[in-house]
Amino acid sequence: MAKLSSIKDIYQSPEIGASYKVQGWVRTFRGNQFCALSDGSTVKTLQIVVDRDTTDPELINKIKTGAAIVVTGTLVESQGAGQSVEIQAQELKIVGESDPSVYPLQPKKHSLEFLREIAHLRFRTNTFSAIFRVRHAIAFSIHKFFNDRGFFYIHSPIVTGSDAEGAGEMFQVTTLDLNNPPKNEDGSINFKEDFFGKATNLTVSGQLEAELAALALSKVYTFGPTFRAENSNTTRHLAEFWMIEPEVAFANLVDNMDLAEDMLKYVLNYCMENCADDLQFLQNRLENEEKSKPMAERSPMPLIEKLKFCADNEFVRLTYTEAINILKNSKPNKKKKFQFVIEEWGADLQSEHERYLVEKHFKKPVILTDYPKNIKAFYMRLNEDDNTVAAMDILFPGIGEIVGGSQREERLDKLEKRMTEMDIPHEEMDWFLDTRRFGTCEHAGFGLGFERLVLFITGMSNIRDVIPFPRTPGNAQF
Ligand code: 4AD
Ligand code: MG
Predict the structure, then answer these.
(1) Domains (ranges, CATH) in the chain?
(2) Which residues surround ligand 2, an ion (CB under 5 A)?
(3) Is the CB of 39 under 6 A from ligand 1?
């Protein structure tokens, strides 16, 4: 009996002379004889050799790019260059035909922009199957990292009544008739009649719920979809993205930075160990793509070397205040090359500043701490100076901010004062404040933007290419 095997398994432990059954999609078919078969288990294809003399010509005629086939045959050492082994087909079945004259994917290079328009088929390209295998490995390694360290995975809600970040960038969730919503006497919409009896939205972050859980289970993390209705049409923003948010009780800002740095390095090492073929493929792709770019715009290191460099070197840690001084005295600032010139302490850092620090000044991942309270969320712990908060952002080369986190304000009076200053209604947040009333303690956590990490590890340059079905302003197809 032929055993059903994935192409990955066959390459891993090939049994020459054994009978195998393989199934997948035809990539190319040359000389009515050599079929390159892909099943998505690896970036490699398996060569299937069809016997031209004994195979029905009508069947041969149907072996076309894109067709789904099932093959049984003997594994032999390959005579041809380019592959170590191949299967001599004894039985070949066409399961799903394909017509290459109308099949959008041709055996040639397609642009990423074109592939975005056919996102339902782009999984079938080498590039996208590699990206999504690596994406899987990253997700798996994150769960493994936290599980191995005694963290519990908490499922925070997707529909919520709160705006965790206080930035007001929320998608509303309602079952009210938008053409005829119930009104209050003052003309405003009466959300008491809505499905949940109040106004609700899609979550922007699972942090507040993670805090509640951490103040009982000690170490928790969330890993879920988050939604932001910010109108940012950049290569690093999605309206729907995935976030990992660990939260740890009895932990301060330094513990938080250590955890984030350990986690990122663990994931990089895991991918280098377990996704070597895909990363090599993605590295070659990137090198090819960058050939057409001017030297100054090319990556300073090949992809895998860059990952190793980040995994092996300590991240630079400095305060926002130190960073502002570096930026103020930097060439692009003095020459007014930055779109947003840094004039004074208190300025919010833009992606151009973050990338200058990481790519030009330090040439390493950077952790910035102790930001002005006025540019950060209400829940961050106020420092002694009354002016800065115990925040930390991790900045990565080519990406900018990849992680945002902080030690939390655990002191009830200080938290309430900050909420008042920032116009956050106390009644609606009473459940959150309860944690500060009963057994409050130091705690800290952060949020890792999952797609930004996938972007970094795969060496892709647009965030729309590392999530299967991107959601961006004006785009929710598929
Ligand atoms: O810095 P942010 O807004 O932090 C929070 O949401 C905190 N509640 C996290 C916490 O402390 N538990 O978002 C965290 C990360 C960012 O550093 C960025 O990597 C990513 O989420 N992110 C986005 N990724 C893709 N598209 C967007 N629109 C993003 N907005 C934030
Ligand atoms: Mg942030």
Answers:
(1) 3-105 (2.40.50.140), 124-152+214-465 (3.30.930.10)
(2) 404
(3) no
